[in-house]
């Protein structure tokens, strides 16, 4: 019935719509009659030159077109997915630190196995939490459920059962700074608190997990600068006396390019588990399921760069 409605709305003529649909005019009229009863609106008014849509029909035009387009996508996905010939575009969401750490081996793998597949990257960051029970990555999970993104790579251990996950790696943090920085020679907890800090914060809020750990010890630090991305943090560290707590893989991969050194944190912290995440419904799409396995495989095949000397 929606297909009939869509074509009649485009043609503004029952007979022409019937021709496009390979139906008889009476079959089209019958379908429209059922739809009129269902929606409690006449939808189309007859005129000597065809039909004129009612205001309700005009309101329904765009959402019905979107529904039919989505159905077309579902039907198209039923065709066997062949990565070697597919020209699909997938969207991956992740924090920029994860993107900068893993995308080189992933894109190399995709170029070899699926040269016509395109990738879109979306920068995901945690949302501010009103309480400790709030899910900081709720926005990213919602994007997965609405298929705004196909796969996310997030620091999450436990997810609702409607999501499928694949373990990627465990990420810990180090203290990064320019080469020759004095903190590298004596990386004590006291020196850490005395130093001037840079924090990656999308909202600009100068408070992070490090500050929570310090507060439990009765300590605090001074955050001189916040920046919205990890890559901006690397750039600023290279030309300042600031230090920053950053993901180890990110620093290992880019320390040489930016002239950075790094040392271990002066306190212990449990590593974050980085996982590839998709909805179980999306995993029924052979293309998304393939992408998940390629992400896992590309990291298993590649090794993280060797540590740089402080």
Core attributes:
about 300 residues; five-stranded mixed beta sheet; disordered C terminus; D-Maltodextrin-Binding Protein, domain 2; 3 domains; elongated; Arc Repressor Mutant, subunit A
Number of strands: 12
How many separate helices? 11
Distance between the termini: 68 Å
CATH superfamily of the largest domain: Periplasmic binding protein-like II
Helix content: 40-55%
The CATH class of the largest domain is identified as Alpha Beta
Q: Strand fraction band?
A: 15-25%
Order of helices and strands: HHHEEHEHEHEEEHEHEHEHEEH
Unreliable stretches, pLDDT < 50, 5 or more residues? 306-310
Topology summary:
Layout: H1 2-11, H2 14-21, H3 25-39, E1 44-47, E2 50-53, H4 55-77, E3 89-94, H5 96-113, E4 118-123, H6 138-145, E5 151-155, E6 163-171, E7 173-178, H7 189-194, E8 196-200, H8 209-216, E9 222-227, H9 230-238, E10 244-247, H10 248-258, E11 260-264, E12 272-279, H11 286-301
Parallel strand pairs: 3-4, 3-5, 8-9
Antiparallel strand pairs: 1-2, 5-12, 6-12, 7-10, 7-11
Helix pairs in contact: 1-2, 1-4, 2-3, 5-11, 9-10
Structure notes:
By secondary structure, the chain is an alpha/beta fold. The chain folds into three domains: 76 residues, Winged helix-like DNA-binding domain superfamily/Winged helix DNA-binding domain (Arc Repressor Mutant, subunit A); 109 residues, D-Maltodextrin-Binding Protein, domain 2, CATH 3.40.190; 92 residues, Periplasmic binding protein-like II (D-Maltodextrin-Binding Protein, domain 2, 3-Layer(aba) Sandwich). Helix content is 43%, strand content 22%. The chain has eleven helices and twelve strands. The strands form four sheets. The protein has a five-stranded mixed beta sheet. Strands 10-7-11 form a three-stranded antiparallel beta sheet, covered by helices on one side. The C terminus is likely disordered.
């Amino acid at each position: 019935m929606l297909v009939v409605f869509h074509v009649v709305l485009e043609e503004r003529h029952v007979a022409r719509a019937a021709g496009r649909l390979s139906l008889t005019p009476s079959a089209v009229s019958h379908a429209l009659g059922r739809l009129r009863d269902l929606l409690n609106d006449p939808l189309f008014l007859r005129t000597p030159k065809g039909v004129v849509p009612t205001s309700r029909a005009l309101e329904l035009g765009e959402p019905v077109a979107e529904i039919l387009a989505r159905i077309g996508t579902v039907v198209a996905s039923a065709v066997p997915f062949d990565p070697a010939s597919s020209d699909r575009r997938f969207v991956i969401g992740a924090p920029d630190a994860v993107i900068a750490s893993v995308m080189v081996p992933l894109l190399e793998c995709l170029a070899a196995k699926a040269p016509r597949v395109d990738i879109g990257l979306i920068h995901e960051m945690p949302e501010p939490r009103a309480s400790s029970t709030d899910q900081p990555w709720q926005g990213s999970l919602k994007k997965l459920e609405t298929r705004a993104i196909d796969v996310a790579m997030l620091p999450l251990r436990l997810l609702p059962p409607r999501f499928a996950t694949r373990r990627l790696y465990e990420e810990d943090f180090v203290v990064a700074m320019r080469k020759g920085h004095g903190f590298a020679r004596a990386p004590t907890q006291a020196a850490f608190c005395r130093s001037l800090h840079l924090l990656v914060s999308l909202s600009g809020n100068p408070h992070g997990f490090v500050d929570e750990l310090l507060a439990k010890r009765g300590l605090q630090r001074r955050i001189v600068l916040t920046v919205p991305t990890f890559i901006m943090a690397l750039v600023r560290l290279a030309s300042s006396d600031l230090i920053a707590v950053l993901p180890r893989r990110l620093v290992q991969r880019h320390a040489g390019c930016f002239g950075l050194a790094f040392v271990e944190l002066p306190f212990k912290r449990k590593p974050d588990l980085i996982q590839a995440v998709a909805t179980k419904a999306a995993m029924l799409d052979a293309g998304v399921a393939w992408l998940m396995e390629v992400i896992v495989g590309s990291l298993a095949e590649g090794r993280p760069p060797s540590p740089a000397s402080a």
